[in-house]
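REQUEST
  id: r-88c1
  op: predict_structure
  target: 60S ribosomal protein L31
  payload:
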Amino acid sequence: MAGLKDVVTREYNINMHKRLHGITQKKRAPRAVKEVKKFAKLHMGTDDVRLAPELNQEIWKRGAKGVAFRLRLRISRKRNEEENAKNPLFSYVEPVFVSSVKGLQTVVVEEEN
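RESPONSE
  id: r-88c1
  status: 200
  body:
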């Protein structure tokens, strides 16, 4: 992976089914949120991970028990503009709405700045 200094956006498929296997029904959606944060931290290398409200709605849309088997995520590594921020970079995770996740690969997204 290139240095952590660069700001980058990628789209990933995340298999929630394998991450939530064996988790008690009522705890599946809360665990899914934790697993998404863990995934973003691993792939972007930032301790500060923030989730978009739309992603939270997407995870919880079928209730605590009915988390989708696979999610398409857009994870952006951004600079932290706040004064005296602990971490210089943070990850922002948002959902990508696609009809089917199957067959989609990880893609680097060009930012429109």
